[in-house]
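Whiteboard transcription, Tuesday session. T.W. wrote the structure tokens on the left side:
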């Protein structure tokens, strides 16, 4: 009961600047609008690859480690601990997952990856919660430490083993994949018709039921599970109160330090699971550098999602999709998406001008004109741009979503037991 009062007090205060949270119906309308515009672009450009089943299936696979890292960041930051060390915890997950996986099987590797990431979370919790070291400094140090530690361990663990080198582990057995029978074929057939909107929705849904790994199902299930635990249980209420007002929470009997520790360890475990996915499912081996900044992109997905599981899932899906364009060599698809970007920027320009934000409106209008001109005057885009698309998308999305964000109020602030006494 006492923690309910803490949560209601925090929830009753408006977001900075008086901005209201984006409602679920408005969010669904926005997603539907983007799907309609994408379908229009596909018909205009004949770039059927932007919404086909294989593209969406690849996007889902690439979104999983990003989403798991972001989910880990959500647990940590909802308890008030900034976790820049997600990239390092991902790295630990990839190494421990492959190390245990090639010796004792892939499921043991999955468990080892979770434990490896959780150890990184435990270290981050000890440094930030117990010793009150700056959260950013601790996270960066963990990223560097994880990279150096796995590089060192690989030198004498994988070298000399059949299939292994100083930078790569021996192959790990597959967890297997499955496709939903009947439904996947029907959606693939619909997608091949290239009908307006219907085929695009079929391609999106087809990617969700084709060539699925068991870990993909687990990762997707963790999104609603996290929402239920953090927003529908007393445990989650107490944890979130630690990120909103730890002084008030402690005064009402909440063990703030315990909840911060638990949240950061769970955060590391989720990131470690994402790392295990990379070294067991995405690639059946550990390879130095295979995380490729996905921990940072997961952090961006969490921020884009406004520290909420549903928004995080959308952000991970978006970044996974842009990454799939790079993986599938989609120079033509990226060129077609320039037209979609121009349309979205034009809508943003009109919206901001209606809101009397004239500078932002003019900037959006100029950017829309530039994207439209680029599309109209070229037939292709450089491969270097395709490679950079995931990182460009990360910057653009964070830039446009920054005005509606509201992090937990005590996020990143040092706290000592008895501080409110």
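and on the right, the sequence the group agreed on:
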């Amino acid at each position: 009961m006492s923690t309910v009062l803490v949560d209601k007090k925090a929830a009753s205060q408006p977001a900075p600047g008086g901005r209201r949270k984006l409602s679920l119906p408005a969010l669904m309308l926005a997603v539907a609008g983007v799907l309609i515009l994408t379908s229009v672009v596909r018909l205009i450009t004949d770039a059927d690859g932007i919404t086909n089943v294989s593209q969406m299936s690849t996007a889902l696979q690439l979104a999983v480690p990003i989403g798991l890292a972001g989910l880990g960041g959500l647990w940590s930051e909802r308890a008030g601990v900034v976790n820049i060390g997600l990239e390092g915890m991902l790295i630990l997950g990839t190494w421990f997952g492959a190390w245990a996986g090639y010796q004792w099987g892939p499921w043991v590797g999955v468990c080892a990856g979770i434990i490896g990431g959780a150890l990184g979370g435990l270290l981050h919790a000890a440094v930030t919660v117990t010793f009150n070291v700056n959260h950013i400094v601790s996270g960066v140090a963990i990223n560097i430490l994880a990279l150096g530690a796995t590089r060192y361990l690989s030198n004498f663990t994988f070298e000399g083993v059949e299939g292994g080198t100083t930078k790569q582990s021996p192959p790990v057995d597959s967890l297997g994949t499955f496709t939903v029978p009947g439904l996947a074929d029907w959606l693939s057939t619909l997608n091949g018709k290239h009908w307006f909107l219907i085929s695009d929705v079929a391609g999106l849904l087809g990617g969700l039921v084709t060539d699925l790994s068991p870990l993909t199902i687990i990762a997707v299930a963790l999104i609603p599970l996290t929402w239920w635990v953090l927003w529908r249980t007393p445990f989650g209420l107490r944890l979130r109160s630690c990120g909103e007002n730890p002084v008030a929470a402690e005064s009402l009997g909440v063990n703030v330090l315990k909840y911060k520790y638990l949240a950061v360890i769970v955060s590391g475990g989720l990131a470690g699971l994402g790392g295990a996915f990379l070294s067991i499912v995405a690639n059946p081996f550990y390879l130095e550098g295979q995380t490729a900044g996905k921990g940072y992109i997961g952090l961006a997905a969490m921020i884009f999602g406004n520290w909420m599981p549903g928004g995080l899932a959308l952000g991970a899906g978006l970044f996974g999709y842009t990454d799939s364009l790079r993986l599938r060599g989609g120079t033509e698809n990226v060129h077609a998406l320039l037209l979609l970007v121009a349309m979205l920027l034009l809508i943003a320009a009109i919206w901001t001008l209606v809101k009397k934000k004239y500078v932002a409106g003019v900037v959006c209008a100029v950017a829309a004109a530039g994207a439209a001109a680029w599309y109209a005057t070229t037939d292709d885009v450089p491969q270097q741009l395709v490679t950079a698309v995931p990182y460009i998308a990360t910057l653009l999305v964070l830039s446009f979503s920054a005005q509606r964000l509201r992090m937990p109020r005590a996020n990143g602030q040092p706290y000592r037991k008895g501080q409110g006494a």
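Someone added at the bottom: Confidence is low (pLDDT under 50) at residues 1-19.
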